Amino acid sequence: MIFAGASNAPLLGVNIDHVATLRNARGGRFPDPVAAAELAVEAGADIITFHLREDRRHIRDEDVARLKAALRVPLNFEAAVTDEMLALIEQVRPEHVCLVPERRQEVTTEGGLDVVGQFARVKEACGRLAAAGCRVSLFIGADAAQIEASARAGAPCVELHTGAYANAWWAQDQGGMASELQRLKDGLRRGRALGLQTNAGHGLAVWDRPAPHPFPSSTAAVAALPEVSELHIGHALIGHAVFVGLRQAIADFKAEAVRARDPRA
Ligand code: PXP
To answer: Could you tell me if the CB of 240 is within 6 A of ligand 1?
Structure first.
């Protein structure tokens, strides 16, 4: 199996949910997440990621249809493991699907999917979505039991939740960063040993102030891990775009990932 990003920088999946959140704040059609996705692709995004939540709080069904019609890069459709979402994905047939846990009250996806606890359901979803031609990834914590269950469920891919590492990075808690990074490394290696493609995402950022920096950005630290094939980044990238523009924000995150793998780049 060939893993994208194994020998060079990981691919960058840009999550455009936050553009839809901004649009929905005024209830109109601006800023348009589909236009943002097109610009992101022009600026170097390899994958466009979005999460169609049960409550449609940001991305809406019509956005999904427009994204599918407009884009030529792979779409990564994040969704909860519900009958409604599985049926929608079978209609849309995105290239990638990432199954995530979802709680109505949460602000963002907190923690990973419990594959062990709902094994039969996740396994069935993996089979259904593979039959629809989608590459299925499971968004899980870097936990040995969850990684092994993901492989047994037939998912070809996992995305390890980097939220705990990212929180330690924001807090500049170097002890927490070291231990969370080690957990990610162990999880990535375990996933690869089981033949899974291993991606990573959640909470990753670049420095929001000029160099010198006391340690690498969270994006650089995770991108440097050779087993990471794709990074999926939303909040901090769109936040960075407020200051530098979306095109530059994507260039900055991509450059960070490229330099992390090859300091001469
Ligand atoms: N990956 C998955 C599976 C997610 O659910 C999210 C958040 O929607 C992200 C990555 C991106 O997280 P963030 O917006 O914190 O960069």
So the answer is: no
- Taking the centre of ligand 1 as the mean of its atom positions, its distance from the CA of residue 136, in whole angstroms, is 16
Instruction: Give burial (CB, 10 Å; 0-12/13-18/19+) of 20.
Output: buried
- How many of the other CB atoms lie within 10 Å of CB of 181? 20
Residue 51 is among the residues annotated as catalytic for this protein: yes
Q: Whose CA is nearest to atom 5 of ligand 1?
A: 109
Tell me if 78 CB under 6 Å of ligand 1: yes
CA of 100 from ligand 1 middle (Å) equals 10
Helix, strand, coil fractions of the chain, as percent rounded to 5: 45, 15, 40
The DSSP line for 194-243 is TT-EEEEESS----SSPSP-SS--HHHHHHTSTTEEEEEE-HHHHHHHHH
How high is the mean pLDDT of the chain? 94
Torsion, Cα 62 63 65 67, to 10 degrees, reads 170
Closest-CA residue, ligand 1 atom 1, reads: 201
Question: Which residue segments constitute the domains of the chain, with CATH numbers given?
Answer: 11-261 (3.20.20.70)
Catalytic residue among 18, 38, 58, 78: 78
The type of residue at 218 is S
Write the pLDDT tens digit of every residue in 173-226.
999 999 999 999 999 999 999 999 999 999 999 999 999 999 999 999 999 999
Is the shortest distance between the CB of 33 and ligand 1 below 6 Å?
A: no
Q: Is 78 one of the annotated active-site residues of the chain?
A: yes
pLDDT at 234: 98
